[in-house]
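Extended Data, panel c. Modelled sequence:
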Amino acid sequence: MNGVAQLTDRSILAFANNCPSMLEIDLHGCRHITNASVTALLSTLRSLRELRLAHCIQISDEAFLRLPPNLVFDCLRILDLTACERVKDDAVEKIIDSAPRLRNLVLGKCKFITDRAVYAICRLGKNIHYIHLGHCSNITDQAVTQMVKSCNRIRYIDLACCNRLTDASVEQLATLPKLRRIGLVKCQAITDRSILALAKPRFPQHPLVSGLERVHLSYCVNLTVEVHTYTSI
């Protein structure tokens, strides 16, 4: 991994120039990669399906805003920008415009994004299945509610440390018919109302069954140990 971490713009540009059939690139932790490399990769590799840039700390909005106008990446399905803190709302809006068929979008620890980015994600509609917004603490209930209305095929969502979110968000998320995993770690405003909503069965043909597989609730300090039944919902 140490060798990978020393990759530079020059070596990455070689992929863009010489490997037009590239489908997946993982640059996790390559701290020397700059905006120019990302712009070149996306501008040139039109078959790219996965681009992982987690912890590439030099990347900012400019990596995406400098893409050629009207360029569309129909093949891009997975984009991971974990801890790219300089990526903000403007970049997210450009990404959604350019990659309308994204399935997995990871923006965890992109701490400056706001509801604007979430409203942009809404434009992905049924295409988005996996969304990570952990530590995006500026996000509000209003944006999450709209995302639920627009993106009803979400299977996994992480909202850890989104401290502005309340039970209202979770009650909306609980209505997603395909939801399997949800992360709410340190969402300290949620209460038992959220848990009751998540536990409520969503399948008419199986009235005692919920489709949830994993729920992360560590440090949700307002949860209690009281026993509730579905009849109390």
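The chain has a mean pLDDT of 90. This feature is highlighted in the accompanying rendering.
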